[in-house]
Amino acid sequence: MQTESKGRAIALLPIGVFLVIFLGSGIIMNDFYAMPAIVAFLIALVVAFMQNRKVSFAEKFAIISKGVGDENIITMCLIFLCAGAFSGAVTAAGGVESTVNFGLSILPSNIAVVGLFVIGCFISVSMGTSMGTIAALAPIAVGISEKTGYAMAICIGAVLCGAMFGDNLSMISDTTIAAVKTQGCEMKDKFKANFLIVLPAAIVTIIIFLLITRNSDYQMTEELTYNLFQILPYILVLVGALIGINVFVVLIGGTIVSLIVGVATGTLAVSEMFTVVGNGVTGMYDITVISIVVACIVSLVKEYGGIQFILNLIRNGIKGKKGAEIGIAGLSLLVDACTANNTVAIVMAGPIAKEISEEFGVDAKRSASLLDIFTSVGQGLIPYGAQLLSAATLTALTPFDILPYCYYPILMAVSALAFILLKKEKK
């Protein structure tokens, strides 16, 4: 079946069904994670199969098989699993604790809150997870708040800002992997483009936290033990990815080094090596399966004319490359606000962003950066997102207490828009 050039709005019904079920259950139950995303996506897939009787059941299976078998989808899923293996190994080897303690040891005590942001940036880039960063630093933020007298919301706000910094920059973040693979660009190219955009936002965030906490003085009373060898795997992965080594080689190598370091430093028993790797891989099952199911849905939606409908809608509303980039940014932000999960949002919006970028000549690394940045902007600001909910739970606050201090996500959006609007287009 050939997709109609004008597109068909009704083809978007499966996506609408997903949003209604997922958002509706969250509103009714007052918990946006009460309905597992995979269940909502499976229902949406059933709806997609029920649509368009002109296409036989067998043909629909052929369509989704082709979609799931796409090189980028398979590669993305395998990278997810490798990233999980590395995360499980390096965490068990003591990498997280050593990184946090090392950062707190070298930073002056009078910039403790700024230190939380800076350490959060490094840990989130190293670990590839904003949630892991928040879990690691939230207890320290509580201690700093109690000792300095600064509001708990300011301290945990600094942690959340740091967590969101690495969420869209880390080489092993599921969001970064999804953005790169859906847009078809190199990891190192996307990192460089993304880093230039968010660096101004990070610098201004540091200045703001310095100004509002300039009178603080905090001394760590507990002993901060760390081992530089336990930080080594993070550094190797970061450097390896930046210089262009194949991401699979980087992640597998990082996993092996982590296991060696863990055994050598006594934090990991030889008998536990395969278990920790397996646990890390298992932790990535959800996003891997979701990516496969979303690929099935998108394949059918595209075949029915849904993607073409969105492209025509965007094409009529924007002009030129800048308009296309703003369209990708708005699409990313909207989908994340609806799904409350930036990785799922990228997997859903990625194919549409790819079509837009090809239509208007936007570089793949640019579209990948915009996808990653604006889904992270949404994730760092929606009060029902996992990041704010987790930060609030760990500190007995509400998401609305923390929101006023989420400077970085807002500044990241401002910086990205400035880069779009001020960049000169090549004739």
Task: Please describe the topology of this protein.
Blueprint: H1 13-29, H2 37-50, H3 57-68, H4 71-92, H5 95-106, H6 112-127, H7 130-148, H8 152-167, H9 174-183, H10 187-212, H11 228-242, H12 247-265, H13 273-282, H14 285-304, H15 306-317, H16 320-339, H17 342-360, H18 364-379, H19 386-395, H20 399-402, H21 407-422
Q: Your description of this structure?
A:
It contains 21 helices and no strands. By secondary structure, it is an all-alpha fold. The longest helix is centred in the middle third of the chain and has 26 residues. The chain is globular and about 70 Å long.
Task: Please give a quick description of this structure.
This protein is mostly helical.
Characteristics:
single chain; 21 helices; globular
* Main sheet overview: none
Range of helix content: over 70%
Using the alpha-carbon principal axes, give the shape. Answer: globular
Residue share in β-strands: under 5%
**Given the structure, what is the number of helices?**
21
Helix/strand/pairing category:
mainly alpha
**Can you write the helix and strand succession as a string?**
HHHHHHHHHHHHHHHHHHHHH
Unreliable spans: none
The count of β-strands is 0
The rounded distance between the terminal residues' Cα atoms is 38 Å
Mean model confidence by pLDDT: 84
Whole-angstrom Rg? 22 Å
Oligomer: single chain
